[in-house]
Amino acid sequence: MLSAAPQCAWSQPLAYPAPPQAQFRQQLDARLPLAAAFTDDSGRRARLGDFFGTQPVVLMLGYYHCPNLCSTLMDGVLETLAGVGLPPRAYRVLGVSIDPTESAASAARKKASYGALVAHAGGELHLLTGAAPQIQALARSAGFEYSYDAASRQYAHPAGFLVATPDGRISHYFMGVRFDPRDVRLALVDAAAGRIGSPVDRLLLMCSHYDPATGRYSAAAMTLVRAACLALLAALVLWMWRVRKSGRRRAEA
Fold first, then answer.
1. CATH dotted code for 9-214
2. Separation between Cα atoms, residue 83 and residue 164, nearest integer Å
3. Using CA atoms, how far apart are residues 95 and 128, in angstroms rounded to an integer?
């Protein structure tokens, strides 16, 4: 976080909802524009699709000189990924700047500031910059709605990230700046179509379902447990009714 930068008015009250013009409109299964051209943090020109193909991708949109929210989000994502317990190179982390004035040098400086966290997380981190048309195409496909405030020279944008499949389809959304490593692990396993993770992960996926409204997995097994408890209670009530009815018949006889 750049302490000398002006405060980002949009990112101060993290507990408050984002402004109406700054939100995720979830578009699950939408395809990202893999042909769009960007520049990576080394200054190399690359297509978005160059970062897909073999691994699921954790994708974040923001901008590198954001004084608060973007750094908090990146910290939260990298700290969470360090706790998911997946092997190195099991996924890629991709950040894309929504500010077309930012350069590869800006991306490189930001990446260097995350060196220790990236090493701890064990994945690959790539930070991209690009021209406005490519940025806007990516944001539209991701359902990432943002706006620029000329007075503060800052962007209003939502907090969160998405997980995409290796072929560039949106698989899951996560909202906020702090995340449950278990949820993220399951999302990565899910997005990779079972190509990573252990049989236990697949069992958990069978017992869980993804709630796109909250960006979390909720245990469907709990629903089954509640249903079983209700069924047991109903069976107990029926048994007690039959016992009482049988007792009355014997008394009348």
1. 3.40.30.10
2. 19
3. 6
CB half-sphere exposure, 75, CA atoms < 13 A:
7
Fill in the amino acid letter for 201: D
Distance (Å) of CA 92 to CA 59, 141, 230: 8, 19, 44
User: Tens digits of per-residue pLDDT, 91-150?
Assistant: 999 999 999 999 999 999 999 988 777 777 667 899 999 999 999 999 999 999 999 988
Cα-Cα-Cα-Cα dihedral sign, residues 12, 16, 20, 26: positive
The domain locations on the chain are: 9-214, 220-253
Tokens of 100: 């077309």
CA–CA separation, 163 vs 23, rounded Å?
17
Do residues 24 and 173 make contact, with C-beta atoms less than 8 angstroms apart? yes
Strands 92-97 and 23-24: unpaired
Q: What is the pTM of this model?
A: 0.70
Q: Which residues contact 190 (CB under 8 A, 6 or more apart)?
A: 163, 171, 172, 205, 210
Angle, helix 199-206 to helix 181-191, in steps of 10 degrees: 100
